Amino acid sequence: MIEPVNIFIDTEFTNSETPDLISIALVAQNGESIYLEISDFCKRNCSQFVMDVVLPLLGKDRCSSMPYSSASNELMRWLFRYEDQGVCILYDCQTDWDLLVKLFYGDLPDWIKGRNSYQMIDRSQFRHFFEVRGLAAHHALNDAHAMAFSFNDPNEPVSSNCGDECSDQEN
Predict the structure, then answer these.
(1) In sequence order, what are the residues at sequence separation of 6 or more whose Cβ sits closer than 8 angstroms to the Cβ of residue 1?
(2) In the chain, which residue ranges form alpha helices assigned H by DSSP?
(3) Angle between helices 94-103 and 68-79 in degrees, nearest 10
(4) pLDDT for the residue numbered 152
């Protein structure tokens, strides 16, 4: 049996209470990645944290910006390269998974599964990733790469009680 490809996801979103997608990144275990920024999210819905920390990190790559309606097709096109193997989307915050499912209108193919990996992320390695590389946290692509870097044993079972734990900050 072929093992599914682990793909790490991170998103940035407007606020914790009523999150709308701002950006999304997927990083495969082989290092391939996709990063998209949503051009038509409502900035009025952003929390102060998002306005101060997340929004200044956006817009560095015009090619990654697109309307919400286009992002689903772009992500699915990227994911299809792994269809034969299957995909395990690893997330450390339930909102990341929820926003991905919402982006696909609740209709994910059966070869894409989700798994909460919060307890499998070595938080000291996660922080070390940013320190060594001088990258900003709370940027979806950087955070997804940091998750891949700090991921522990992929065969370790995930505890069923870590469903919606998020890191210290909102996103």
Answers:
(1) none
(2) 48-49, 68-79, 94-103, 123-133, 140-150
(3) 100
(4) 84
Question: Is residue 116 a contact partner of residue 158, using CB atoms and an 8 Å limit?
Answer: yes
> CA 37 to CA 62: how far, in whole Å?
9
- Predicted model pTM: 0.87
The conformational region for residue 51 under phi > 0 = left, psi -120 to 50 = alpha, else beta, is alpha
Residue whose token pair is 């450390």: 92
Q: Please, are residues 43 and 56 in contact by the beta-carbon 8 Å criterion?
A: no
**pLDDT tens-digit profile of 54-68?**
999 999 888 899 999
Model pLDDT for residues 96-147, shown as the tens digit of each residue:
999 999 999 999 999 999 999 998 999 999 999 999 999 999 999 999 999 9
Calculate ∠ Cα 115-121-124, nearest 5°: 165
Q: Is 36 exposed, middle or buried (0-12, 13-18, 19+ CB in 10 A)?
A: buried
Q: Are 42 and 18 a contacting pair, CB within 8 Å? A: no
> Which position has the token pair 């990654």?
64
Distance set, CA 59 to CA 5, 23, 56, 73, 157 (Å): 29, 10, 8, 21, 37
**The one-letter amino acid at 110:** D
